[in-house]
Description:
Blueprint: E1 2-6, E2 25-27, E3 51-57, E4 60-65, E5 73-77, E6 83-88, E7 95-99, E8 107-115, E9 118-127, E10 131-138, H1 147-151, H2 157-162, E11 164-170, E12 176-185, E13 205-207, E14 211-216, E15 237-247, E16 253-263, E17 272-277
Antiparallel strand pairs: 1-14, 2-3, 3-4, 4-7, 5-6, 5-8, 8-9, 10-11, 11-14, 12-13, 12-15, 15-16, 16-17
Amino acid sequence: MTRNHPHISRRTALRTVASAALAGVAGCLNDNGGSETPSDGTTSPDGRGPLTRIAVEGTTLVVELSEEADVNQINLIQPNGELFGKRDVAAGAQQVSFEIGTAYAPGEYRVLALKGEETVVETSTELRPEIQIQDVGLYRNNPDKPWDEVYGESETDRIKNGEAFVTVENTGSGPEAITELIFSGDVPNPIENPRGSGMHETDRVVVSPGETADLFSNSFPFGSESEDGMGCSPDGNSGQFTVIVETRVSGNRVTSAYNVQYSGSDEMTDCEVTITEI
Length: 278
């Protein structure tokens, strides 16, 4: 299970992520059809031209037209030059949309507005996701997260103490799908190839541009110490671990490393865990 919430600013480790309003990723268009630096999703500054706004909303590319637009078709061209799709513009319509999902090729897409066979205006927009890991934390350090809702109220604190959340942010211009969550290094239960996705009850998490999402683990990384793991001690054990997030659209492995200390007990259930970003 995941929790999606809007864009946030950078934070220190183990602090609850704060929400802000989700902004569409868009390009403002001038009356000659060229795309300017993308933006806040508003119409073009002069309010002219048949295309007034191109924006990604969730996993959909939205193209808005002016009231005066004299076009009857919008084509979307992929970075390789092939047609992604085309939409008829009904009389009086001011918007068409393309469902791009999370199986598209990242890169520069061309948007063509046509009247009959003639191209009236052409512009381009970049669709490229960029995932960053913003935070990682445990139940014992972040009890205000919806742990009971995610894992179920019947689960014991031992289970919740063993799992973790990772907050990711999409700072790019296209939607992305997270397909795997991995904890490696000095955690009690490091698993390089977790069963399934490593995320609780899901095989992928979609993160739209400008959005953040909490990924909840399902591999028990901070549970009982395994043969290859680092455990707790009264005097403290210190190490480093890495969070790895695999993505579908960009095909990247996004990583973030952390210092960790386990102290105050011989058992992980009573251990004080301190995590700081490197």
